[in-house]
Amino acid sequence: MRKLGASSLLAAALVLSACGGGDDDNAQGGTISGEITVLTQRTDIVDTVFQEYKKKFEAKYPGTNVKFEGITDYEGEVRIRMNTKDYGDVLLIPNSVTADQFPTFFEPLGSLAEMKSKYRFATEKAFQDKVYGIAITGNAQGFVYNKAIWQQAGITAPPTTPQDFVAALQAIKDKTEAIPLYTNYKDGWPLTQWEGNRGGVSADPDAVNKLTTDDAPWAEGKEHFIIDSLLFDAVKAGLTEDDPTTTNWENSKNLIATGKVATMMLGSWAIIQMQQVAKNKADIGYLPFPYQTNGKFHSTMGGDYNNAVNINSDNKATARAWVDWFANESNYAVDQGGIAPLIDAKVPETLADFTAAGVELLELNPAPAGQEGLVSRIDTAGEVGLFEPTYRQRLVDAGRGAKKETKEQIFADLNKRWAEARAKTS
Amino acid sequence: MTPTPTTNRAPAAPAGTATPDRAQPSHTGWRRPRRVSLGNAATPYLFLLVPLALLAVFTYVPVANMFWYSVTSWNGLSPTKEYVGADNYVEIFTRPELFRVFWVSLYYVGASFFQLAAALYFATILSFNVRFRNLFKGILFFPYLINGVAIGMIFLYFFTPGGTLDTALGLIGADGISRQWLGDPDTVNFSLAGTSVWRYMGLNFVLFLGAIQSIPHHLYEAAQIDGANRWHQFRYIILPGIRPIIGLSFILAISGSLAVFEIPYIMLQGANGSETFVIQTVNMAFKFHKIGLASAMAVVLLVIILLITWLQRRIVPDEKVNLS
Fold first, then answer.
1. Which chain A positions have a beta carbon within 8 Å of B159's beta carbon?
2. What percent of chain B is modeled with pLDDT above 90?
3. How many CB atoms lie within 10 A of CB A274?
4. Mind listing the pLDDT tens digit for each residue in B111-150?
């Protein structure tokens, strides 16, 4: 017990000293040398691309040694590890960690104003005017699609309404052999990608913040109603795979690359992965969500995972150097076809379709002071799971007739849960 | 029924008691008997120290922690755990939908009866002199050795539309009955329970076989002389002879059915109506970050299983079997 008290005192002292340092980058102190451990979710490239990064970083800062730890179940594992002090020197902030928890676990990287002038998405991981993470890359939201198949079905322009979109899927079903829309139901997480469209459909940067004052986000005409109805209607019309319970994410890449699947709802990070599998790279394109505000498509762009420095790290100077180097010099975002976090970086080639369709990219506004993380807290309190596959799997089950529920019943249940959770969460 | 070796126990008895000291001849008078006996008495406990320490660290401490979490509103991350008393338990018992998933367990309870019957059948047959009996033993036990994740993957391909099962049905001309084995909400739990039977039958089989083989052989010979056929032998020698093992298997099967997790979670993550109580608990803890509530649910499940075990023991008391 005494040992625990001493170490928490130490942690408190560290927080204080870090805060006292103000906006100065050198608040971390120390010299850039020695060993750091970097946690990453990219187990697929940790032994290849990341080894190149390591070489370049160590060449720039002699005397440093970077060790990587690739973690397959990143979300689940790291959150549990954060109960100890040993969660790497540099790590990606797990999505389930809410803003009000940042100061307990991460070293502040700078003031919001200062970081905002350098990086995109800086507000996403900010709390009380301090920024705790820099995005490794950024994503837009939409549908990855196989252009050749869509053309075969006679559709050349992106549908502008959900009805048009369903009609387009129907045309694909009628005129081609492809599965019009693949849900990836079994793996679950691809269904959570639908949630990324919030803000983009309403073209409102405050869409997420408004959820905290809304008792019925699934009421007709609202954003969640539009997004989830499209999924439900497509399933209901039989435009998705026959047996959703045996889908397979890894194989779905091949399916869309070879034209056996026409469309999938995924963040723009997926485009390059599909292109790598496709015989003809140009076959893989990106569609905006079929909804226009003022005659224009909108899509949110948001940070992917964010690099952060462990507040318990023994080598914060080097850890900080890695975070900066990764954002400024590694070129990770561009290599992965994402939107680079640097403020002046160009829109990547993968989003050429969006540029052509005149899609306006918008960034969501951060939660107002005092309400940081409130949406997540309402979400978990009501067991809704906006970023969990559960309720969208339920929608798919209802749509294909495996559950005796109507869309309206599900939405009513979600509204009820949201309203109740909102009432008891502050 | 061999007599327990006395060598360990005799020295432990204090010198001068009525216990005959066979192992320690009394003429070793230069040694102080008391110290010897103390050291020897401690030996088994010293050996026990390591497993007990492991048991405490990896079982009892976490379970004690679970009890503690169950009275907090901890979210799995925050450094403080707020004490909320019995709130979590009140919540569980005021939300009937949390218990609805026990209906899913009934499929597995049903399957476990089938599983025990099949295991008993195979164990009985293979306890007689059958050709290739060792090969069959191996084949029947093998599935139990494969790990759960691999089984999940195998059966996912097995049940895929146009997968192994459909192909096999097609070969025998029965493709009329093929359907979405996992996609159809009416069959999904049968498919999963079937997978569970395939996996665990081997274990029951081996337990039964071991018990059957410990029945003295002369009983069968005596029965044969009295004109008993194979069925009589099974009914009046084997079945009563292995009753304790059958009882134990039932307890394990029922408690296992209530706590099914691996197969439905790996194959479907509890989707399409295959959610069980444990999956629900895991979701509560790791999707909605309600560690407190999830711990309370785990405690409730523990109590339910203890209760059912107790009931089972009351209804079918454990009788001592005397075979000779």
1. 246
2. 40
3. 25
4. 999 999 999 999 999 988 888 889 999 999 999 999 888 9
Q: Which residues of A touch B188 (CB under 8 A)?
A: 245
Residues A120 and A57 both lie in one domain: yes
Please state the rounded mean pLDDT for residues B312-321.
75
A334 and A405 within one domain = no
Angle at B281 between CA B280 and CA B285, to 5 degrees: 115
Q: Do B273 and A397 touch (CB under 8 A)?
A: yes
Cα distance between residue A58 and residue A60, in whole Å? 5
Nearest to A89 by CA among A406, A300, A320: A320
The total number of structural domains that make up chain A: 2
Would you call B78 and A403 a contact, using CB atoms and an 8 Å cutoff?
A: no
Q: Are residues A276 and A200 in the same domain?
A: yes
Average pLDDT for residues B317-323, to the nearest whole number? 67
DSSP A245: G
Find chain B residues with C-beta within 8 A of A393's C-beta: 271-272
Q: Quick one: pLDDT band at residue B39, thresholds 50, 70, 90?
A: low
Segments forming the whole domain that contains residue A99: 2-16+26-135+305-346
A394 DSSP assignment: H
**Secondary structure class of B278 (helix, strand, coil):** helix
The count of CB pairs under 8 A between chains A and B is 73
Beta strands per DSSP E along B8-58: none
Q: Rounded to whole angstroms, how far apart are CA atoms A341 and A139?
A: 10
Interface test with A, best of B69, B72, B73, B77 (most A CBs within 10 A): B77
Residue A94 lies in a domain: yes
Spatial CA neighbour of A283 closest among A178, A399, A426: A178
Supply the angle between the helices B148-159 and B188-213 in degrees, to the nearest 10: 130
Block residue for tokens 């033993």: B137
For the domain that residue A321 is a member of, what is the CATH number? 3.40.190.10
Q: Helix, strand, or coil here: B57?
A: helix
Question: Domain boundaries in chain B?
Answer: 96-315
In angstroms, what separates the C-alpha of B180 from chain A's closest C-alpha? 6
Q: How far apart are CA B151 and CA B280, in angstroms?
A: 21
Looking at residue B300, what is its pLDDT?
A: 94
Beta strands in A280-393 (DSSP E): 284-287, 292-293, 296-303, 306-309, 360-362
Predicted local distance difference test score (pLDDT) of residue A27: 43
Distance, in Å, from the CA atom of B321 to the CA atom of B245, rounded to the nearest integer, reads: 11
Neighbours of B220 (CB within 10 A): 17
Extract the residue ranges of chain A whose pLDDT is less than 50.
Answer: 1-27
- Structure-token pair, residue B273: 């109506």
**Calpha distance B310→B308 (Å, rounded):** 5
Q: Which residue bears the tokens 């797990």? A: A94
pTM: 0.80
Topology, domain B96-315: MetI-like fold (1.10.3720)
Instruction: Provide the ipTM.
Output: 0.79
Residue A356, domain member (yes or no): no
Query: Cβ B78–A104 below 8 Å, yes or no?
Result: yes
Q: Are residues B281 and B294 in contact, defined by beta-carbon separation less than 8 angstroms?
A: yes
- Taking the Cβ of residue A426 and every Cβ of chain B, the question of whether any pair is shorter than 8 Å is answered with no
A298, A309: one domain: no
Whole-number pLDDT of residue A14: 39
Two tokens, residue B193? 């329970």
Query: Rounded distance, CA A16 to CA A315, Å?
Result: 17
